[in-house]
Input
Amino acid sequence: MDVQRRDFLLTGTLAAAAVAGSAAAAQSANAPAAPGETRGSSILPGDEKVQYTGGTDVKRLKIINTAELEVEAEKILPKGGYGYIFGGSGAEYTKAENLRAMQAVGLEPHFLSGVLKPDLSVTILGSKLPFPIIVPPMGGQGLAHVSKEIGMAQGSQAAGTLMTLSMQSNNSLEEVAAAHPGPKWMQLYFPADRGYAREVIMRAKAAGYTAIVPTIDSTLAYPRDNNIRNDFRIPVSLGKGNAPKGEPDPVKASTIMNRRKVDLNWDDMVWIKEQTGLPVVVKGVMSPVTAKQAVERGIDVVWVSNHGGRALDGVPASISVLPRVADAVNGRVPIVFDSGIRRGQDVFRALALGANVVACGRPVLYGLALGGNLGAQSVLEYLRDDLYIVMQLTGTPNVKAITRDYVVQPRVA
Ligand SMILES: Cc1cc2nc3c(=O)[nH]c(=O)nc-3n(C[C@H](O)[C@H](O)[C@H](O)COP(=O)(O)O)c2cc1C
Output
């Protein structure tokens, strides 16, 4: 029987009868952290007093390119918050490689194809989207803007696309669901405390999220230089929207939220499906081996991502592994791709190399910082319009038509 600390909180005396059998499991959730387990993400006493204000403007943005959004966001955001969003892990090799390798994929247009108006629409897990660009999970959006995840929800809803909410959101998943009636997915950093894991996914199901997205690349929070240098942790005062119910102490609640299941495995993924009956999207796939196992274990979507270079530094660019992952999946389940999407060309490259849908992280968050919901919407629409031009110029009438015939892949050493 797999009963842990949260089950005790939730079921009181009933659970007390199970104490003997579950003591070992409860202990593992409360055991001292392993080296590095809470590094970079733990909350220290006194942190709850730290105040923080992100961007406050609400306006449409005139976007020339997404690189300039980063420059503008740095001017308005507090140093620690900007560093948190901007940064990658370790030596930031992977973060840089995401952009470099992306540009190394050449486009091979088929001119004279007679395409008048490319159709950008796609369907994923039964949700029809007007264009193949979604919002990935990004924790602590209060760092970017005072409207937090509600602003992002309004912006992506207005653009007509799907939003994935991070479990580490400042607003609650219910508040975000109310601001985003359209299709939405819920991300999960699988907690060590299984009772809490169950609480989050069942709340998400009840609130209308249509898939659960366990992130598999961050069983330990990899240190990021910026956060260490700035002694930065996401301020508790911004809110812990999905904190465990029944734990009023914000520091203790953060500890439960941040303590992840380090020995995460495929049975945990299947457990999410069994509990919720919802499709499971495994985020952080960086190897054809993992992709093949995902399909074999009945996972519904493979999400190729290296977390924007924020998890294990030293892995290749996501775009570099995408073709081999796509070969392993062989069309059996859809593929979502992220890490390094900055222009319509990048969306096209990823679609050509096997993705069904892409997600764009930091640029959309900078949009939120600079213009709230309207800013996030502006970035999504900029990418949509840029993709439209690229599809017309390459001669691809719809998303399905974008294949490897339209790109020149760099030689992999
Ligand atoms: C500020 C920030 C917070 C993030 N938080 C999460 C998170 O809570 N869960 C998660 O799975 N990924 C998280 N990510 C990673 C994104 O989901 C996505 O993989 C990444 O941003 C894509 O790379 P890009 O920023 O180059 O587009 C975060 C990224 C950023 C920039």
The chain has one domain: 32-408. The chain has 15 helices and twelve strands. Residues 32-408 form a domain with the TIM Barrel fold (CATH 3.20.20.70). Residues 1-30, 36-40 have pLDDT under 50 and may be disordered.
